[in-house]
Amino acid sequence: MVVLDKFEMPNIDLDGIVKHLKETGKYTHQLWLNDESLAFIARGRTYRSEFHINPSYEIQFSLIGDLDLHYRTPEGETKIAHVPQGSVLYQEPFVPHSPRFAPDAFQFIIERARKPGEIDRFHWFCPKCDNFLHEETYVVDDYRKDPVGRAYDNYYTSLEFRTCKKCGTVAPGRD
């Protein structure tokens, strides 16, 4: 039997967090992080184009607005799972996925906390010929460190990373 010294069940004000994200212009707010799970609220980004590959499952709840979850099959085909407001999607680990939703839309996401040594990958592909463009890797152990934002900064500030070596197309920058 496990004896808990401190037992908390926080009541989280999701409306207040959405308001805070809108007012500050931030894109994520971590709700909790413990040995088993992490949860956060994410706001949409118009420039999102990468495919995130992580070792955890994801549970994505469309809190406000709709989500179009672009994902790549093992054969490299891109498909879209539409998640309307009020709906939830469960995603298996290691599925290359790109959650795309409007800046005024918000997702509530729960994931398994990463185990030591696990790496998250971010892949970009050419918008014209689908050739692999670039990979960023991060240890995602705390969303307050903004690993996704750092991956975007590295990619979008580099013309070299955004230029296709196969067809010469330059992928768009951030708008």
From TrEMBL:
Q: Does the keyword Metal-binding apply?
A: yes
Its required cofactor(s), as named, are: Fe(2+)
What this protein is called in its record is 3-hydroxybutyryl-CoA dehydratase
What SUPFAM superfamilies does the record point to? RmlC-like cupins
Q: What does this protein do?
A: Catalyzes the oxidative ring opening of 3-hydroxyanthranilate to 2-amino-3-carboxymuconate semialdehyde, which spontaneously cyclizes to quinolinate.
User: Does the record bear Glycoprotein in its keywords?
Assistant: no
Species in which this protein is naturally found = Neopusillimonas maritima
Keywords attached to this Swiss-Prot or TrEMBL record, sorted alphabetically, are: Dioxygenase, Iron, Metal-binding, Oxidoreductase, Pyridine nucleotide biosynthesis
UniProt-listed CDD domains: cupin_HAO
Q: Which InterPro entries match?
A: 3hydroanth_dOase, RmlC-like_jellyroll, RmlC_Cupin_sf
